[in-house]
Structures are given as C-alpha cells and as structure tokens.
Amino acid sequence: MALRRLLLRYFPPGIILEYVEGGESKTRSIDLLDLRPDTDVTALVEEIQKREPLITASCLEHITHLVQRLQEKLGEKQNHKFSLFKVLRTHILPLTNVAFNKSGSRFITGSYDRTCKLWDTASGEELHSLEGHRNVVYAIAFNNPYGDKIATGSFDKTCKVWSTETGKCYHTFRGHSAEIVCLSFNPQSTLLATGSMDTTAKLWDLEKGEEVASLNGHSAEIIALSFNTTGDRIITGSFDHTVAVWDVGTGRLLHTLIGHRGEISSAQFNWDCSLIVTGSMDKTCMLWDAVTGTHIATLAGHSKEVLDVCFDYAGQRIATASADGSARVYNAGTKQCIAKLEGHEDEISKVCFNPKGNCILTASSDKTARLWDAATGHCLQVLEGHADEIFSCAFNYRGDTIITGSKDNSCRIWH
Amino acid sequence: MGLLSILRKLKSTPDQEVRILLLGLDNAGKTTLLKQLASEDISHITPTQGFNIKSVQSQGFKLNVWDIGGQRKIRPYWRNYFENTDILIYVIDSADRKRFEETGQELAELLDEEKLSGVPVLIFANKQDLLTAAPASEIAEGLNLHTIRDRVWQIQSCSALSGEGVQDGMNWVCKNVSTKKK
C-alpha cells in the first residue's frame, strides 16, 4: 500500500487518504468527528499515526497542517445575515420538497404541478423542467456527491431518474402500487431506494434500470428511508410505528426497532453508522444502536407530534421539530436536551443543521423559516416573506445559502 | 399542516374519517364554504392557488375537506386529489349565469372520471344571498342533473357567506357517508 495524497473534508471534519493497493487506487477516511478549535493538535496527530499505518513520519507535518486547517474552519466566526436573493415563481402549484447538489451550485424543487425543476443557484435561472409524471412530484434527490443524476418519486406510483445535464429521463421505475413518498440514492450512486404508501420499499439498479429487491415487512405506509454512510444498510420508517433495518446487499430484514407508540415521522443514521434516531407522532424521539437494533434512549419533552429529526453532520447533536411549534437540540452522547428553540407560531415540519453544525434551520406552517444558534437555542434570524406554509428547506454545503419551498407555489433563495 | 400531515390524510381512512373533495370553478366560493364549515373568519379570502385542507367534526365523523383551486389553468390538476375520495362536493356560483355552461361541462367531466365513479355528489347552489342568484331547481335542470344515475346526488341551495343551507348539505353528506362506509 502506498499513500498517494491527502485530501481535506470539512464537513464532517476528516482527512481522506488516497492510496494504491494491488495496482488499484482506493480511498479511506480518517474521521475527526470530535475535533474542536482547541483540540491539542500534536496529541491528535500522534494518535492518528498510531491508528493509521499509511501515515508515516514523513507526512506528519502535512497532517498537522491539514488538522489546523480543519480547526480554522470550525473556529470561523459566522455572523452571516441572510437576506432574500430571489423568489422563483414558475411552479403553478404548491412545492413539496427541495434539495441541493453537493457543491450547492444547483438545486431541485418538486411540486403538485407534477414537475421537478432544476435551478442554477447563483442566478436563480430555471435550467430544466423535468416533465412526465402524471401526479404530484413529492420526493426528490440528487445522487450526491456526484450530482449528475436526479431522482423523482411521484404520487403516480412511479419513480424517474434524470440526467442533470440534459434533463432527459434515463429510467422510469414501475412496480409500486401506491404513492412514492421517499427516496434516496446509495452513497456509491449504484442504487436507488424508494419508499411507498404501498408499505414496501424497493431497491433499483441504476445501471441496469431494474428492481433488485423489494423490502417487504412493514404493515403500513413507509414515509422515510435513509442509507447509512457506507451504503450497506438502509432503514425504513413506517406508519406501523416501527423502523426496519435492512441489509442492502441481500435485501434481508436485520432488525425491527419496536418501541414507538405512534406513526414514525422520520429516521436517520449518524455519520459513523453507530446510531439511528427516530421521530414519532407519539411526541418522542428515540435513539437506537444501529448494529444490534436495541433501544438506547427516549428523548422526551415535546408536547405534540415530532415531525422531523436529524443528526448534525458529525453525529454529535440531534435536532427535533414538533407540531407543538418548538424545536429541540439534544446531545447525542449525553442524551440531554441542550436547547429549546421557541418562537414559531405554528407547527414546525422540517429541521436541519448547517453542515458545520453550529446553526439550525426550521421551516414552519407560520410561513416563516428561522435560524437558530445550535448551542444556545437563540433565534438568529426570521426569514419572512412566504405567503403560505413552508414545507421544506435546505442549506447548501458551505452553509451560506438557504432555499425554502412553500405552499404558496414559490421557492425562495436566501443568501 | 406540513407535508407529513398531508400524507397522513392521503392514506385510506379508518371508518370514522371521511375524505371530501371540494371542487368547482374559480370564484364559486369553495374556500369561503370551507372556512364557514370550520367556523373561521371569511372576510379575507383570496383565490386559491393550490389547495386548503381542513378537518371538521360532524355527527360522529371527522370530515377531512380538501378545497382545490378552481382557476382554469390548474383544473387539469384536480385529478391529483381524486384518490380515496368518499364524497364530492361541487360548488356553483348561482349568480354567474354566464358560466353555467362551463361549470356544467366541468361537472360532467368529473362524473366521467373512473376514480370518482360511484362517489356520491352534493352540488351546492351557492351565493343565494345575491338577488340575481338562480334557484337550485333551475340549475338542476340546466345541468341535467336528473340524468345522473350511477350514484346518489343532491342539490342544495346555500350561502357560504351567511352559512344558510350549508348545514343541510352537510347533513346529507353524513347520511350518505354512513350508508357507504357501513
């Protein structure tokens, strides 16, 4: 094995090793999820050297430099105030979901008008309107980090895969017998997973354009799914109150996470694939061991349904959004609630961290999106202007651009 | 309401929940009717660009009412909402005689939709508070409602503004839901 080069990954903090083994170029990462601006660099570099045989004495200086750059990034003060950049009004019916590509140069919006539109972030120009679905386009995704493909899942029971460049449809996947409401590419971008109101999830081979597995086991609608970082596991969240963990290679059910007393609203892995977080209509959020499927903790506190949950990129914190109009931040390690985000005047349907993890974005039925300090829970900014409920929101990777999708048929870009 | 709540209302509903689709031309008074049903303020209503959903309790039922915008350019999207419909309510502006033909045509097309086949239909002859409003009997005749034989139907005159006649219509809805659901 010979190390070829070292690459930086800002979010979550890490160093990517590019090396040659048996004539083949490979990569692996050193995750530095606990890195802080004040971490002792010398001690950390020593530890990395002990842990990683590819890191020899000759590259220690380089590693030290990279760690310092990551620390600088984490320590950067962000006083960025967002303001409205553009209102995009070419959808003629309410929007559903929105998503950025990895670099944030482009984003997509799904709509009740049966289209998905591709936009240039810098200009706000519409690049393509992806047309062909016969009903609401609900679930949308880029195959990040590549971003050359877009998947759309529709109430018409089909899923389509499109070329980002040309806007042409590569595949239409048929097989579900009810609305498709969630989907995701695997991290390698070889598979697409779709979840449906027909109670099944399916895995589709993107090259062959065919179904490779049907994940049968839930007794009610599947409304959330998520791959882990390595792509060998997928979880599905269902209205049957459970979350299922599946082996991607075989399509076999590995665990069923039983404990919630209401419909699941959201489910996600943390970055290192050790934990699963789930949100439910039973007003709680639960943490599970991703390997054994055992229940670790119940994060209670909300007085109404938990509508969305997420980890930050490093997996250190969890944010929950609730119909009670508040959001909460929990420490994933101690399971303690660190902050309550109070101020919205109606239910919060979406919550996400910025990639750096210091800031939280919430979207609400009160027609506003709000930005919060993830550590203190202080409201940093209220993004006002939408004329109706905000259904979806997203940060770009750099954390300096936000998009919001609303029932008022518009999408707004905030800089 | 949020996207997730919409998904919850999308699934085929348990016995005591009823999915009602509220359609009609633009300016027929669908949103006013919806707000009247939910006992909400009706003084500031603007054309619906998408849809509104409200749940109201009536006679032991939870009525999930979907009010869909009626402007011409978004009428082709009405079919987005047909799935699992228990009752169709079609609203007509009884004072807008110029558009009786247009509204009759839209209704006829709805009644031909496979996904709405057999679904009971209530026609509200709305805006009876206006002096120029045509009576329900005249509208029924103009729209050839008596030729509807594949489902139960009813025409009810009402004023969404004052609320008059609205409850009578909803009573018919509950009566016909109960026969269908049980």
TrEMBL record, chain A:
GO molecular function terms attached to this record: U4 snRNA binding; U6 snRNA binding
Entries under PROSITE patterns matching the protein: WD_REPEATS_1, WD_REPEATS_2, WD_REPEATS_REGION
One protein family per Pfam: WD40
Main location: cytoplasm
Organism superkingdom: Eukaryota
Subcellular location per the Swiss-Prot or TrEMBL entry: Cytoplasm, Cytoskeleton, Flagellum axoneme; Cytoplasm, Cytoskeleton, Flagellum basal body
Keywords: Cell projection, Cilium, Cytoplasm, Cytoskeleton, Flagellum, Repeat, WD repeat
Alphabetized InterPro entries for the sequence: WD40/YVTN_repeat-like_dom_sf (IPR015943), WD40_PAC1 (IPR020472), WD40_repeat_CS (IPR019775), WD40_repeat_dom_sf (IPR036322), WD40_rpt (IPR001680)
Any GO BP: determination of left/right symmetry
WD repeat feature ranges: 88-129, 130-172, 173-214, 215-256, 257-298, 299-340, 341-382, 383-415
Metal-binding as UniProt keyword: no
GO cellular component, one term: U4/U6 x U5 tri-snRNP complex
Recorded family membership: Belongs to the WD repeat WDR69 family.
Cited function: Required for axonemal dynein assembly and ciliary motility in ciliated organs, including Kupffer's vesicle, during embryogenesis. Facilitates the onset of robust cilia motility during development.
Protein name per its UniProtKB record: Dynein assembly factor with WD repeat domains 1
Organism: Junco hyemalis
